[in-house]
Amino acid sequence: MNRPTSNLLVRLLSLLVLTVAVFLFLTVSSAAATEPITYDEYRVRVGDTLWGIADTISEDDVDLREVVGELREINGLATSSLMAGDVILVPIR
């Protein structure tokens, strides 16, 4: 093989390896992102707040504002107000 053909072959092979690596990375990333979330029903008791529930279910390094926002979104809540007897969905972590 002459030198230009050899360089072209190396470049094409490198491009193929890079393409496969990117494809595998994206496949693994999207599989992790689409993992289904499981929820549990929680009946609100007197004195419960959305912030208190968020604090109970969250991990220490998570911003509670994000958890409260997630709970509001999951349950279609316009505000953070809860009433005793309400049933809300909380993600199981």
Plain-language structure description:
A two-stranded antiparallel sheet has the order 1-2. The chain is built from 3 helices and 2 strands. The protein is mainly alpha-helical and 93 residues long. The protein has helices at residues 3-33, 50-57, 64-75; strands at 39-43, 87-91. The model has no long low-confidence stretch (mean pLDDT 86). The protein has 2 domains: 1-35; 39-91, Membrane-bound Lytic Murein Transglycosylase D, Chain A (Roll).
What proportion of the residues form beta strands (DSSP E)?
5-15%
SSE string, helices as H and strands as E: HEHHE
* Average pLDDT level: 86
Tally of domains: 2
User: What is the CATH class name of the largest domain?
Assistant: Alpha Beta
Name the structural class: mainly alpha
Which segments are poorly predicted (pLDDT under 50) over 5 or more consecutive residues?
Answer: none
Please state the overall shape, judged from the principal axes of the Cα atoms. Answer: rod-shaped
**Rg on CA atoms, Å:** 24 Å
Using the coordinates shown, work out and report the CATH topology of the largest domain. Membrane-bound Lytic Murein Transglycosylase D, Chain A
Major beta sheet summary:
2 strands, antiparallel
How many extended strands? 2
